[in-house]
Design a protein that fits this description.
transmembrane, Four Helix Bundle (Hemerythrin (Met), subunit A), mainly alpha, Nuo/plastoQ_OxRdtase_6_NuoJ, single chain, oxidoreductase activity, quinone binding, 1% strand, NADH-quinone oxidoreductase subunit J, 59% helix, 13 helices
Length: 326
């Protein structure tokens, strides 16, 4: 299933290519159109695995194993780890900050497509020399000979770029602060200034959920006027689009709010009907049934179960005391 010296492709290799190629194309499109960064990273993992299979099919087992171990197993897992640290709730801004950058990107993409097309044409149009002579020692030896002889300058440039990227990441991470670190007092004063300007509140956000109708974190709370409080739903759920409306979980609450706004005060969520529907405990100063009076064992009217439980407890206590004496 390898490319022979005559330049022909075997039937097995053709079947393998037409099975792997559509999967790679679909995964590449998933990378471009995925709305979540995690899904895009998983699409890249699938592309790399398919590429490793093609490497092995072309008598390059070392490249195939390195593709899986180095790229798929290490670098992509590092990407996913960073995404988990940053958080899936990070929203990307689609606003074009630099004017004209899209046209520059289009031209650069077209140039990259022409370069890749030229590389593919240069590698397929001449008659292939065969892989037997290239891998006469072994595949790793053949790869090393090409890297450190014909492409030594490219390898040096790649090494310099990796070192610069690592040093730059460390420098940006441990850079000096542009402004003093905000203390707890500074945070409090900023919140008070925002509250005075009408841009926020100083207290904690209300808990999500609509009374006893729902305790889900995806449902917003209701204000005193019957308006849903969007800030009561966690920001992560709102960005993911998992927030539900009050009408989804409690249509009767929406109807009660509408009746209250229409002037039917007794039928609203804070009307007389809602007040009368709440049971009262009967405590001093409150209407309702009297609270139950606890009955001690041995008192008149005490249930037989209480008498039995009391007798068993006394027997157990006496038995424990006798064991301690022995």
């Amino acid at each position: 299933m390898t490319l022979v010296e005559t330049g022909t492709v075997s039937g097995g290799e053709t079947v393998l290519f037409w099975v792997i190629a559509p999967i790679m194309v679909i995964a590449s499109l998933g990378l471009l159109f995925a709305r979540r960064a995690v899904h895009a990273a998983l699409s890249v993992v699938l592309v790399m695995i398919c590429l490793a299979i093609l490497y092995v099919a072309q008598d390059a087992p070392f490249l195939g194993v390195a593709q899986v171990v180095v790229y798929t197993g290490a670098i992509m897992m590092l990407f996913l780890f960073v995404l988990m640290l940053v958080g899936v709730d990070a929203a990307d801004s689609l606003t074009e900050t630099i004017r004209g950058q899209r046209w520059v990107a289009y031209v650069a993409g077209l140039g990259l497509a022409l370069v890749l097309g030229g590389v593919v044409a240069a590698s397929t149009l001449p008659r292939p020399a065969g892989l037997t002579a290239a891998n006469i020692d072994s595949n790793p030896v053949g790869v090393a000979r090409l890297i450190f002889s014909d492409f030594v300058f490219t390898m040096e440039i790649t090494g310099v770029l990796l070192v610069v990227a690592a040093v730059g990441a460390v420098t940006l991470t441990h850079a000096e602060r542009l402004r003093p670190k905000a203390t707890q007092r500074d945070v409090l004063e900023s919140k008070m200034r925002a509250y005075a300007a009408g841009k926020g509140g100083v207290g904690q956000l209300p808990a999500p959920g609509v009374y006893a109708r729902s305790t889900s974190a995806t449902v917003p709370a209701l204000s005193g006027t019957g308006e849903p409080i969007e800030a009561s739903v966690p920001r992560v759920l709102r960005i993911r689009g998992q927030e539900r409306t009050i009408g989804d979980v409690s249509p009767e609450t929406v109807a009660a709010v509408a009746r209250g706004r229409a002037g039917a005060g007794t039928a609203g969520i804070h009307g007389g009907d809602a007040t009368r529907a709440v049971g009262q405990s009967g405590l001093p100063g409150m209407r309702g049934e009297a609270p139950p009076t606890p009955q001690l064992p041995g008192s008149p009217g005490a249930p037989a179960t209480l008498e039995k439980a009391s007798r068993l407890a006394l027997e157990h206590t006496d038995g424990a005391a006798k064991e301690e004496e022995l």
